């Protein structure tokens, strides 16, 4: 069995030297628990934040993952069950049944969907639109980091919820094409290719009502500038600043929120797990029909997990970044 530990704190952008791979005998489950062989691991931006302080050095890391029960010492889990649990960054895990979810087997919905659009990633997008921004049909929505996990879910969910116009930004021409040609965005632009404010004004000439912010900083400033009166900003994340060693200078136009009566609200998806059932009811039919897609960028092999994580932070992924550790 193998696992990854963080061995040092990064200063700015991590290089990979902060992590170490460690080997141990395959753990034996205690009575009441089960051994899981991990199949898919999730790498997420919040892990970059955890690297600064929350993750204890030289202990196995955590993360969302999906694995197969291979040795069960509890009646609650059967060998062969595919389970969702939170002990990622390792090949094997001993789980307590109360901490796992046995994944349903639904035709047309592969298990990795539960790390993507049906997992915390999709739930974040759903909560942002439905509970935080309270999207009203016909409104214009702008999503940043729109080709990523949360972003690609948010664009498609906004469409499903009746948005009038859906606009996205992402970090390459290929991602921009993906947004408009495959993910149903009405307009998209490359945040590396020009001034954000000007590009956003062109993509949403009448302004925006809802902004799903995955990036913060200058993206948030541009969105505040484009906001219509009574707009709402659902602040999910600020990936532009996770590597920063100083607080970001932007947004410099916060007072516009007052002048435009805009509501900006941050949230953590972990406080909204009760919305999971609603998300599944909304998405299961459209996933099965192919009307909504759950994109992943899958890195093959446990050895690739650090590169998958760093690659995701640098924009190497489209859709949810995951790592395949074993064949299911
Ligand atoms: P993504 O799949 O979106 O991957 C991160 C993406 O961020 C990259 O692909 C890259 O895309 C983009 N990015 C990186 N650096 C920058 C930058 N400086 N400026 C603009 N874009 C950048 O990750 P997730 O979908 O998992 O997460 C998206 C956001 O949502 C993150 O901020 C995350 O912290 C947040 N989040 C919040 C949750 C909550 O509970 N509030 C829960 C889950 C996620 P590109 O090539 O387009 O630049």
TrEMBL record:
Gene3D superfamilies: Medium-chain alcohol dehydrogenases, catalytic domain, NAD(P)-binding Rossmann-like Domain. The keyword Ribonucleoprotein does not apply. The keyword Phosphoprotein does not apply. Pfam families: ADH_N_2, ADH_zinc_N. Residues 16-323 form the Enoyl reductase (ER) domain. Keywords: Oxidoreductase. Residues 1-16 are annotated as: Disordered. SMART domains: PKS_ER. Residues 1-8 have a biased composition (Polar residues). PANTHER family: PROSTAGLANDIN REDUCTASE (PTHR43205), PROSTAGLANDIN REDUCTASE 1 (PTHR43205:SF7). This is NADP-dependent oxidoreductase. It comes from Streptomyces salyersiae.
